[in-house]
Amino acid sequence: MDKAEEDEKPLNHAETYDGSSIKVLEGLEAVRLRPAMYIGSTGDAGLHHLVYEVVDNSVDEAMAGYCTDIKVAIHIDDSVTVVDNGRGIPVDMHPTEGVSAAEVVMTKLHAGGKFDSNTYKVSGGLHGVGVSCVNALSEWLHLEIWRDGYTWEQDYERGVPKAPLARTGKAGRKTGTKITFKPDGTIMEVTRFNFDTLATRLRELAFLNKGLRITLTDERTDPPKSHEFYYSGGIAEFIKHLNRGKNVLHEKPIVIEGERELPGGGVLYIEIALQWNDSYSDQIFSFANNINTRDGGTHLTGFRTALTRTLNACARAAGLLKDIKDNNLSGDDVIEGLTAVVSVKLPQPQFEGQTKGKLNSDIGGYVTQVVNEKLTEYFDKNPAVMKRIIGKAVEAARAREAARKARELTRRKGALDSGGLPGKLADCQEKDPSLCELFLVEGESAGGTAKSGRDRRYQAILPLKGKILNVEKARYDKMLSHDEIRAMITAIGTGIGKDDFDITKLRYHKIILMTDADVDGSHIRTLLLTFFFRHMQELITRGHVFVAQPPLYRIKKGKSEKYIKNDQEFVREILRRATENVQVEVGENGQHGKLEGGELRSFLMSLDELQQIFTRLEKRLREPRVVEVLADPSFALDTKADFTNREEVERAARAMSEGSKIATRLEFDEEHSAWNIVYHDEAHGDRTIGVELAQQPEYKRLRALARSTQKYNKPPFTVVKDSRRERIETWRELIQYLKAEGTRDCTVQRYKGLGEMNPEQLWETTMNAETRTLLEVRLEDAVECEEIFTTLMGEDVEARRKFIEENALDVRNLDV
After folding, report:
1. Percentage of residues in the chain with pLDDT exceeding 90?
2. Catalytically annotated residue among 516, 623, 669, 741
3. How do residues 430-476 score in pLDDT, each as one tens digit?
4. DSSP assignment letter at 640
5. Quick one: which of 262, 463, 453 has its CA closest to 366?
6. CA atoms of 228 and 612, how far apart (whole Å)
7. DSSP character string of 391-455
8. What CA–CA distance (Å, rounded) separates 46 from 41?
9. Which one of 295, 455, 520, 650 is the catalytic residue?
10. Where in the chain are the domains?
11. Residue 628 catalytic?
């Protein structure tokens, strides 16, 4: 039912949450030995699961009514911080364990409030192994709690506390928990977090928990990337968000809410929001206790059954199905253009399979009842909306019939049957699909080069003429009549459409998009990705679609040439060239030593990284002199303890003022019992340097690099090559000078087109499995993908113009 947006949920202050609420089930010994048993895997999914475990604790606080704000940050060393404004983990002594309740939560498996049914009625944690599991699988973990008017802190290494929980400062009325951890690379196979994977889960948690604000920041990018997820209207607002830029059939999403008593005790809560638009694809998300049930389950089946039944009943009663075959709409007809979220909350949900992606609990009948009842009631009150929705479904039924006839016709002609492969396909000799690769190549000329350069035993080439049809704007039958798309469908072999797609008939397990690195190439690649996303998404989710990565640069000197794949490799290569037969004297007359060869290269690479961090911190702190002092190893400003030394902090503050026009002052930080340096920035007001900065990995890396380069970072420098001597005053100028030397007498070409290479070069750099780089196309954030494809490829010109204006500055190295 259409329902006004509710106010933000008031904080709940009724329940007591202290050491006695924490129930302990077992110890931590097994986690490091068999991590996959506890987090699913030690790969990509398990890595991200570590963050979800910490965030789920904060979300449980929100569901219980105590937390409204969660912040997640990925730091430059791939450590992660999660901070919330909940009650804070209890710090009092645990009644049976003899240590603080917080230490029990951090070190005992299955210890936490969610095992005490009075503390959390419904909990979102999937495995429920809790944050102790994260602690066990982390190289280090720092815990900070604000509770009972004080700040409490504790450090762990691989799950073992370095000291008991200690009270370190005053917190006033502030409450909450902050956990920073770095996954242990000796156990986890993958340690690099994916922003989009985390964004997907955090977005889901925000719209499923009305009024909860979740912020995700990635400090590894420059400038840092940040997304805020906040839906005061819950799933109904999220539906509106998904349908932005689309023409909706009814302005307000239909919201269905209901409760049912379960026979085994407890209550089933059902919340569903749905809205139709005029597109040809559907987007239906289902959740159980905040967990995304990607493979559906009883709740989704119950919803779809009720939807088909109710729409058919209403359509027949209104006489709207007279010219439809069998006088019946199918399940696919009624969901064309539907955007929906189906969310249920129940005690002890039963899931199926290793990934827990399917709900098995026997609740389908209850969902069907609620949807039947509420949707019929809604249609009775809104007959005009009902007619528009049924009209859309009737149109879908007619198109389905037309597409079936078109398919049968093309199949009779053999056009979609792999027996008649397209004439321009240069197929491979290998018959085992798992060993075969299909290159979709832009343009006939590049196709010719690729055909000459390939390994015909296992590589097939399909050249594509011009720009393929934009399937975002085309209906199914029109798409099937487009030559290039028909050639792709036939070559790939799986067929297309819900009824005909068969993954077992896939003829190539690697489908590689190979387009130029220019604007047209990017457009063609986007058109191809739109086609796969909309009509062969299973190829993406199963990891069969790749993008070829031709090299970014070519460095040519005389007859020798080298292809370079990325900017980091480019810097390494030009510094290698610059340091051949070169010596650098450090200090006046080389009084601090001489550098050459590998030692010089290593020093320069460290200086280059130091410069990148310097630049990022200068942007953040606005004062170069401040960063200079912070990077100076002669000031002891490394750890939190260093900031408790007033004399040392004061000495650093004076140095900052002496070398610039800024005025600094000291302030006592009660929360950490330490000293802060405060200075004024005209644009942003007062800025503070203290414990918060000292705890950030970027700052720690700055200090480490400054220390490792300290021995030879003593200007002036003299660069000696043959009989030439060049005096250089600063370390930054030294890098700049040697980078320029590295490209002297060379032609550096930013690589653009496939056609610029001959077959041997194309084979060596882009097609040879031994030396090439391929990017696997992965669907990490389906919601973000949906939005981007709709914006870039859909009908709304204004939304597209706004998107391009907002994102134009993020584009790097655009070749026009």
Report:
1. 53
2. 516
3. 999 999 999 998 877 777 888 888 999 999 999 988 788 888 777 77
4. T
5. 262
6. 27
7. HHHHHHHHHHHHHHHHHHHHHHHTTTSTTS--TT-B--S---GGG-EEEEEESHHHHHHHHHHS-
8. 5
9. 520
10. 19-229, 234-408, 427-550+761-779, 567-747
11. no
Residue 343 to residue 271: CA distance in whole angstroms: 5
3-class DSSP state for residue 110? Answer: coil
Respond yes or no: is residue 77 known to be catalytic. Answer: no
Question: Is 516 labeled as catalytic in the residue annotation?
Answer: yes
Residue 446 · residue 514 · CB < 8 Å: yes
Compute the distance between CA of residue 714 and CA of residue 406 in angstroms, rounded to an integer: 76
| Closest to 276 in 3D by CA, of 339, 229, 199 | 339
Name the 3-class secondary structure at 292: strand
How many angstroms separate the CA atoms of 73 and 224, rounded?
Answer: 10
Segment 63-78 mean pLDDT: 95
**Greatest C-alpha distance within the chain:** 98
329 vs 312: CA distance, rounded Å: 6
> What's the CATH fold of domain 19-229?
Heat Shock Protein 90 (3.30.565)
**CATH for 234-408, options being 3.30.230.10, 2.60.40.10, 1.20.120.530, 3.40.50.300:** 3.30.230.10
439: left (phi over 0), alpha (psi -120 to 50) or beta: beta
The answer on pLDDT for 655 being more than 90 is: yes
Residues 404/434, Cβ–Cβ less than 8 Å: no
Q: How many CB atoms are closer than 10 A to CB 37?
A: 11
338-345 β-sheet, strand order: 254-261, 267-276, 338-345, 283-288, 291-292
Strand pairing partners for 748?
555
Q: Considering only CA atoms, which of 707, 88, 800, 153 is closest in space to residue 470?
A: 800
Opening angle at CA 801, ends 796 and 803, nearest 5: 95
Tell me: pLDDT of 156 over 70.
Answer: yes
Q: Which residue has the higher pLDDT, 482 or 477?
A: 482
Q: Is the separation of the CB atoms in 464 and 524 below 8 Å?
A: yes
Name the nearest CA neighbour of 533 among 471, 464, 487: 471
Show Cβ contacts of residue 512 under 8 Å, excluding neighbours closer than 6 positions. Answer: 437, 438, 439, 440, 546, 547, 548, 774
- Which pLDDT score, from 0 to 100, does residue 222 have? 83
- Is the pTM above the cut of 0.90? no
Please confirm, yes or no, whether 259 is among the known catalytic residues. Answer: no
Q: Average pLDDT of 780-793?
A: 74
Strand order in the sheet with 685-689: 664-669, 674-681, 685-689
Q: Is 245 left (phi over 0), alpha (psi -120 to 50) or beta?
A: left
CA dihedral 566, 571, 572, 575 (to 10 degrees): 160
Task: Supply the mean pLDDT for the chain.
Answer: 86
- For 378-404, the pLDDT digits (tens) are 999 999 999 999 999 998 888 887 777
How many residues are given for the chain?
A: 816
Between 789 and 720, whose confidence is greater?
A: 720
Point out the catalytic residue in the list 78, 196, 395, 518: 518
Given the DSSP bridges, would you call strands 510-514 and 437-442 parallel, antiparallel or unpaired? parallel
Could you give the count of Cα atoms lying within 13 Å of 458 in the half-sphere of its Cβ? 13
Write the CB contacts of 352 (distance below 8 Å, at least 6 apart in sequence). Answer: 295, 297, 358, 359, 360
Among candidate residues 82, 87, 310, 88, the one with its CA nearest the CA of residue 182 = 82
Token code pair at residue 744: 């002297």
780 pLDDT above the threshold of 50: yes
Give the three-class secondary structure for 4. coil
Q: Does domain 427-550+761-779 have CATH number 3.90.650.10?
A: no
For residue 28, is pLDDT > 50? yes
Other CB atoms within a 10 A radius of the CB of residue 174 amount to 14
Q: Active site residue: 103, 271, 437, 442, which one?
A: 442
Query: Do 599 and 712 form a contact (C-beta atoms < 8 A)?
Result: no
